[in-house]
Design goal:
This is 6-phospho-beta-glucosidase. The chain is α/β, with parallel strands linked by helices. The chain is 40% helix and 11% strand. It has a single domain, classed as Alpha-Beta Barrel (TIM Barrel).
């Protein structure tokens, strides 16, 4: 939904991400707020074919028509793996159809064949903030147990179709982010919701069951396949040695790791009883849910890492880290920040890797790590993004330290290999890639691809397996 575009091609339906607008006149502080708080009016407007608003995630950077060119560039860099997602709405446009859309299946056949031509292994997310909008508006999203069956039909369809082409699967992207943006995560509008915490955790439970069922189906169809989970992991540290800060950090951390605790261990941890009680959450479950979750845990854990955040039990008189996208938190005076206010903490990645491996003893895959910045194209198509190189170099060094610590890190895909629409702000000018796309925040431009300085740098990183970082 950030790269593919072509939302009106090949029978594709609208997804929950297709309702987010970009409006230059909107105050900048509201760009991320929109990501967290979708309104009923916005959802209704987005379904109006006469709307004149710009919906960036319907257009992406037109990977749909540029995939051969883009994959050739990835191959030139030496990619061994390409992390991507399959748009649920290309396969089942509304989500509840009985038969899949052949045009959508055929598109991904072409993509996987192109990757195979260059020897690039696909790592595929099934649901990356793009569930069918129809399932949100007509069924109430993942709070409705019927969505499990729709999802499993989708998952089984693509497992069968691509069983000889895809080995690594992630059922849900950043599954723990339902805490922060329930609309794109489970299809629930938070505005005026009578019990949003109940909805979030009920939707999450149904996704846990769906993940287990998808894992079961995947193993039956392709026994050598591997199925993982993915969370957004924003390392949390106590702001001070105040015991209250330490306890608050533990509580906040559990709210994120609850998701991997269930998916990796196969059961709800003991602390959830108190967590649910304090949130007045009472899950509705079926007798078979517990056994299914237990029997089909994930094979590996993947996560995104961009920043850390300091936590205080008494934040009233402390400066907030307003740019930190997910948890906010307290500004850490020891850390620099990005152009968008995200606190940069490379050593926190080593800590995160150790924490996750100590907790689960499962292989880890860093699925996202990168720097959003405002790149400038100089004369001769030169883009000097030394700041990105520095950011990635410092983080990769810490991955190497974690491996020496004994952590089993089996993969790393930086975010992102090519410029795309920002998930949080719907901007194009917040750029992450090694490849520049000539397109502005309103979709204007030639869409020409231009290599940045980091392109050649990362090519050497891959060739040396992380040994050559200068």
């Amino acid at each position: 939904m950030q790269v593919e575009g072509a939302s009106d091609v090949g029978g594709k339906g609208l997804s929950v991400s297709d309702v987010y607008i970009f409006d230059e006149s909107m105050p900048k502080e509201n760009w991320t707020d929109q990501w967290h708080m979708m309104t009923h009016r916005q959802v209704e407007e987005a379904q109006d074919p006469s709307s004149d608003k710009y919906y960036p995630k319907r257009h992406g950077v037109d990977f749909y028509h540029h995939y051969k060119e883009d994959i050739a560039l990835f191959a030139e860099m030496g990619f061994k793996v390409y992390r991507m997602s399959i748009a649920w709405t290309r396969i089942f446009p509304n989500g509840d159809e009985l038969e899949p859309n052949e045009a959508g299946l055929a598109f991904y056949d072409r993509v996987f064949d192109e990757l195979e031509k260059y020897g690039i292994e696909p790592l595929v997310s099934l649901s990356h903030y793009e569930m069918p909008l129809y399932l949100a508006t007509e069924y109430g999203g993942w709070v409705n147990r019927k969505v499990i069956d729709f999802y499993v039909r989708f998952a089984t369809t693509v497992f069968n179709r691509y069983k000889g082409k895809v080995k690594y699967w992630i059922p849900f992207n950043e599954i723990n982010c339902v805490k922060h943006h329930p609309f794109v995560s489970i299809g629930v509008v938070e505005e005026n919701h009578p019990h949003i915490e109940q909805a979030k955790f009920q939707g999450a439970h149904h996704q846990f069951v769906a993940s287990a069922l998808a894992t079961k189906a995947c193993k039956e169809i392709n026994p050598v396949a591997k199925v993982g989970c993915m969370i957004s992991y924003q390392l949390l540290v106590p702001y001070s040695c105040d015991p209250d800060d330490i306890q608050k950090t533990i509580e906040k951390q559990r709210e994120s790791l609850f998701f991997t605790d269930v998916l990796a261990r196969g059961y709800y941890p003991a602390y959830t009883a108190r967590m649910f009680a304090e949130k007045s959450v009472k899950l509705e479950t079926e007798p078979e849910d517990e056994q299914m979750i237990k029997e089909f845990p994930v094979d590996f854990i993947s996560f995104s890492y961009y920043m850390s955040s300091a936590v205080s039990a008494h934040p009233e008189n402390l400066e907030g880290a307003v740019g930190n996208l997910i948890t906010g938190g307290i500004k850490n005076p020891y850390l620099p920040t990005s152009d968008w206010g995200w606190q940069i903490d490379p050593k926190g990645l080593r800590t995160a890797l150790n924490q996750l491996y100590d907790r689960y003893q499962k292989p880890l895959f860093i699925a996202e790590n990168g720097l959003g910045a405002a790149d400038v194209v100089e004369e001769g198509d030169v883009i000097i993004d030394d700041y990105r190189i520095s950011y990635l170099r410092d983080h990769i060094k810490q991955i190497k330290e974690a491996i020496i610590d004994g952590v089993d890190v089996f993969g790393y895909t930086s975010w992102g290999c090519i410029d795309m629409i920002s998930a949080s702000t719907s901007q194009m000018s917040k750029r992450y890639g090694y490849i520049y796309v000539d397109q502005d925040d309103l979709g204007r431009g030639t869409k020409r691809r231009i290599k940045k300085k980091s392109f050649e740098w990362y090519k050497n990183v891959i060739a040396s397996n992380g040994e050559q970082l200068d």
